[in-house]
Design a protein that fits this description.
Glycine betaine transporter BetL; mainly alpha; transmembrane transporter activity; transmembrane helix; 21 helices; transmembrane
Length: about 525
């Protein structure tokens, strides 16, 4: 199937996606105010008219993931029947976790619960009900939904790539619908170009947030002034490091960084538990989990009449996860060869979701415990909230330094994973893309992050992620249809094979019995 793409022909996916990305980067850097205005207009149109698309898409992905785990398709292997997993479960988990969340855990882990605590929906601010609401909303945004979305795209890519020998491209998922001619034609190339652009903008959004928080931490802890110049320097240094990491391959740079991320994340999480109010954390975990599970469906389809809250929180997150689906999906597919569909979905969905729930409980409680007056002040500057919270606890200074180091390693590991995947996307699905393409996409990601910071910081980051993810929601929904069609066909062929085998065996046995009876007579 790899011959679907003639590598001697012009690589239109690479050329067109590069032109599109460079055009956006140029617009953001050369005309930041106009770029922000256009982004804001498009954002308002989507929020007012199409918020429901994001809401329904994410709920469908969760439902489909649960269906696959419980279905007969769960035993199908993502690879050939005799393939074994390439990585240990610990390395596998650390790589998918670092790629799938990374910077967001540090950036939002404290600030989100605190903001919900002082501005809840349907509860008195700073009340016990507000605490439960804060935990519930954090669990909704960081629990099963994003990981289920990643798992569906990841298993689809792994299935077609390793079991059906298709190129490692998003368009390969649509072979059952489009056929080979459709996949290698304009429709397939359009799908791949959208995947590339969605990935670039999603990663640039994350890099922008990480840069803001690293710069904020340097100012808060070391009194280094947080300026745009400092933020650009941080991006430049990180870019060199993640390009070096991505060009060294999965078994070296990316794997090592992922293990470092997991170790530092465990250290800072355990440290926060030790210095924090442990009984309060347990209470918040219990109450938040109960609210999360009992209101899972109603919260999954919740629509704010004014669209303001839903746009700021739910739709922003859903769009960010959808923007990350192509790159995280391809990356976890690449590291998951040899696992069954059931093992894959449970591993990708359940384990990281539980870690995220514990993470937001611990860091959210650290902030909320300090009271509404402190929270009100600490949430004024988003990127400083974590450091302000740490400053109120013993050993908080040390944890602040570890948090900045973790931000840097998450920054690098997320970006180098994306750089590797973008290289695959624009190399006809080659599992070992050329270093030159990795370098090109590494630079584009960095420049787009700078453009977004120039155009308005966090507000522009949020708006662009929502706008850029919208076209890809349609691709995500159609991929479910294609997956079902492929799995049904495989089970059908397997049943035909089993029946045929039994029939042949029966005929052989009947013939043998006849011959024995003939000899005896």
């Amino acid at each position: 199937m790899n011959n679907i793409y003639n590598k001697n022909k012009t690589n239109y996916v690479f050329l067109l996606s590069l032109i599109l990305s460079i055009s956006v980067v140029f617009s953001g850097i050369a005309f930041p105010d106009k770029f922000k205005e256009i982004s804001n207009n498009m954002f308002n149109v989507i929020i007012q008219n199409f918020s429901w698309v994001y809401i329904i898409t994410m709920l469908i992905l969760v439902g489909f993931a649960i269906f696959l785990v419980c279905s007969k398709y769960g035993d199908i292997k993502l690879g050939k029947d005799n393939d074994k997993p390439e990585f240990s479960k610990l390395s596998w988990f650390s790589m998918l976790f670092g790629a799938g969340m990374g910077i967001g855990l540090i950036f939002f882990g404290t600030i989100e619960p605190m903001k919900h605590f002082i501005a809840p929906i349907g509860a008195t601010p700073a009340s016990n009900e507000a605490v439960t609401f804060a935990m519930q909303q954090s669990y909704i945004h960081w629990g099963l939904h994003p990981w289920a979305a990643y798992s569906i795209m990841g298993l689809a890519l792994a299935y077609f790539q390793f079991r059906k020998d298709s190129p490692g491209l998003i368009s390969s998922i649509f072979l059952p619908i489009l056929g080979e001619d459709g996949v290698r034609g304009p429709i397939g190339k359009t799908i791949d170009i959208l995947a590339v652009f969605t990935t670039v903008t999603g990663i640039a959004t994350s890099l922008g947030m990480g840069t803001m928080q690293i710069a904020g931490g340097l100012e808060y802890v070391f009194n280094i002034e947080n300026t745009l110049k400092l933020q650009i320097i941080i991006i430049a240094i990180a870019t060199v490091l993640y390009i070096l990491s991505s060009t060294s391959g999965l078994d070296k740079g990316i794997k090592i960084l992922s293990n470092v991320n997991l170790s530092l994340a465990v250290f800072i999480l355990v440290g926060a538990i030790i210095i924090g109010p442990k009984l309060e954390m347990i209470d918040n975990l219990r109450n938040g989990t109960q609210a999360y599970l009992t209101e899972f469906i109603s919260q999954s389809i919740y629509m704010d009449p004014s669209k303001e809250w839903i746009g700021q929180w739910r739709v922003f997150y859903w769009a960010l996860w959808i923007a990350w689906i192509p790159f995280v999906g391809v990356f976890i597919a690449r590291i998951s060869k040899g696992r069954t569909i059931r093992e894959f979905i449970v591993g990708v969905t359940l384990a990281p979701a539980l870690v995220c729930i514990v993470w937001f409980t611990v860091f959210g409680t650290l902030g909320i415990h300090l009271g509404p007056v402190f929270v009100q002040g600490a949430t004024k500057v988003t990127e400083l909230a974590l450091f302000e919270v740490f400053s109120q606890y013993q050993f908080g200074g040390m944890l602040s330094i570890v948090a900045m180091v973790l931000l840097c390693t998450f920054f690098i590991s997320s970006a180098d994973s994306a750089t590797y995947v973008l290289g695959m996307f624009t190399s006809n699905g080659d599992l070992n893309p050329k270093g030159s393409k990795k370098i090109a996409w590494g630079l584009i990601q960095a420049l787009l992050a700078i453009a977004l910071l120039l155009s308005g910081g966090l507000d522009t980051l949020q708006m662009v992620s929502i706008v850029s993810a919208f076209p890809f929601t349609i691709i995500v929904l159609l991929s479910i249809v294609s997956i079902i069609k492929a799995l049904r066909e495989e089970v059908k062929q397997e049943n035909i094979y089993v029946v045929s085998k039994k029939s042949s065996l029966y005929k052989d046995r009947k013939s043998a019995k006849y011959n024995i009876e003939k000899i005896n007579n």
